[in-house]
Amino acid sequence: MTRNDGLTNGLSSLPSGVWALGFTSLFMDTSSELVHSLLPVFLATVLGASMTTIGVLEGAAEAMAAITKVFSGTLSDYLGKRKLLVVLGYGLGAATKPVFPLATSVASVFGARFVDRIGKGIRGAPRDALVADLTAPEVRGAAYGLRQSLDTVGAVIGPLLAVGLMALLASDIRAVFWAATLPAVLSVLLLVVAVREPKRSERTRVRQTITVTDVGRLPARYWLIVVLGGVFTMARFSEAFLVLRAASVGLSAAWVPLVLVTMNVTYALSAYPAGVAADRMSRRTLLALGLGALIGADLVLAAATRTVVVFVGVALWGLHMGLTQGLLATLVAAAAPADLRGTAFGLFNLASGVVLLLASVVAGLLWSRVGPSATFLAGAIFTAIALAGLVRMSPERQSLPPASDVLQGAAMSSSRQRTW
User: Fold this and answer.
1) CA distance 245 to 371
2) Range in 31-35, 279-283, 305-309 with the lowest mean pLDDT
3) Which of 179, 152, 154, 155 is nearest to 165 (CA)?
4) How is residue 171 annotated by DSSP?
5) Cα separation values, 112 from 106, 155, 177, 218, 358, Å
6) Beta carbons within 8 Å of 28's beta carbon, 6+ residues apart
């Protein structure tokens, strides 16, 4: 079987619910990235926010999303239901979109961003757990890769719409923000109509109570994945700084959204193949490749003096995301017991979100006090430390069984054994 045949067969074996969740993500990300691709410039030029303020805002918003994921993931395990929470989360995201064009202060933007990220937090862990509920273990990497790719296609469409609308509307950012409401509403409608949650009898056992003692059942390999995710996040602060980096070398506000287009094109193109690869090859190697791409991105962005160089760095950043984000979700799903899957995703995202807050604040402070190059050099240093630690880990000690063996409790076949 050729590589292309493998990718195609993987797509055809995925259930319709996974596709619907992917397109739900696509529409919401189109809406969100239409706003977010212009928001840092809007904050800095229209509302007069400092770089430190932007770093705190972005980091705090993402940290809130991560904290919320813990509770929503655990609640979905307790209820044995995911879709209701997913709909609530996407609904909150849609409800915040009209606030951005009406904002007259940093506080109002912060409030809208805060609620939007709460919505993201509510939907995130239950949605990721629902993907696992809907798919067979042997195609779970492909399922996460597909959802992430479709999500990222939306993240490409959104900034492209922003560029077109900025040209059409004479760079009126507020008017452009209004266009974000339509895809957000479509996202919620698609989710309600097209995604059917599996009946409880179709799932692996689901518990009715979740306690602190239950969290202790999460295996050591899961907590190692949490630590790795945190280290990766410390090296990868908010993408708002990519937008600001392009503006710092002279890219006009009307064209700034192309930064996120570039990042998300490489992200979308690499996420699904990386997800398929996670089902078939060394996950440890994929993580190392992703960290290498991030080091390259940080070094290029630190040295950039022209917009074309910034775009090269941004493309490498997107490649890093494609290689690592779906893979980390696959590892969490494989390591966690089925009845604690929502909780596991919530705790993982909590750790990553808290670290993202710290990383974004540090990035903003370095930018304000030293300069943009220092921000990206610090990212490269953190990434190099993470890569060195990953390389030094003993593969024999860090063996991860295939997802099907984790969920079914079967002995690992020597022909399928992988290390990461």
Assistant:
1) 10
2) 279-283
3) 179
4) T
5) 10, 19, 13, 35, 21
6) 90, 93, 94, 154, 183, 184, 187
- Nearest of 243, 249, 374 to residue 306 by alpha carbon: 249
> Does residue 397 register a pLDDT over 80?
no
Report yes or no: 147 and 268 within 8 Å, Cβ to Cβ: no
Report the distance separating Cα 227 and Cα 234, nearest Å.
11
User: 418 φ, ψ to 5°?
Assistant: -130, 155
Contacts of 252 (CB under 8 A, 6+ apart): none
Q: Which amino acid, 180?
A: A
pLDDT at 237 over 50: yes
Fold observed for domain 16-196+216-397: Growth Hormone; Chain: A; (1.20.1250)
Enumerate residues 6+ apart whose C-beta is below 8 A from 93: 28, 31, 32, 116, 119, 120, 123, 184, 187
> Is the distance from CB of 146 to CB of 275 less than 8 angstroms?
yes
Phi-psi region of 401 (alpha: psi -120 to 50; beta: other; left: phi over 0): beta
Question: How far is 216 from 401, CA to CA, in rounded Å?
Answer: 20
Between the CA of residue 12 and those of 16, 136, 139, 225, 280, what are the distances in Å? 10, 13, 11, 30, 17
Residue 393 identity: M
pLDDT in tens, 159-188: 889 889 988 988 888 899 999 999 999 999
Residue 179: strand, helix, or coil: coil
Q: What is the pLDDT of residue 295?
A: 93
Q: Facing residues of 419 across strands?
A: 399
Q: Residue ranges of the alpha helices (H) in 13-172?
A: 16-36, 39-41, 51-79, 83-96, 99-102, 106-134, 140-168
Q: Contact at 8 Å (CB) between 310 and 322? A: no
Nearest alpha-carbon partner for 379 in 247, 287, 291:
291
Has residue 271 got a pLDDT over 60?
yes
Query: SS3 helix, strand, coil % of the chain, rounded to 5?
Result: 80, 0, 20
67-103 residue pLDDT tens: 776 677 778 777 777 888 899 999 999 999 999 988 8
Please state the domain extents for the chain. Answer: 16-196+216-397
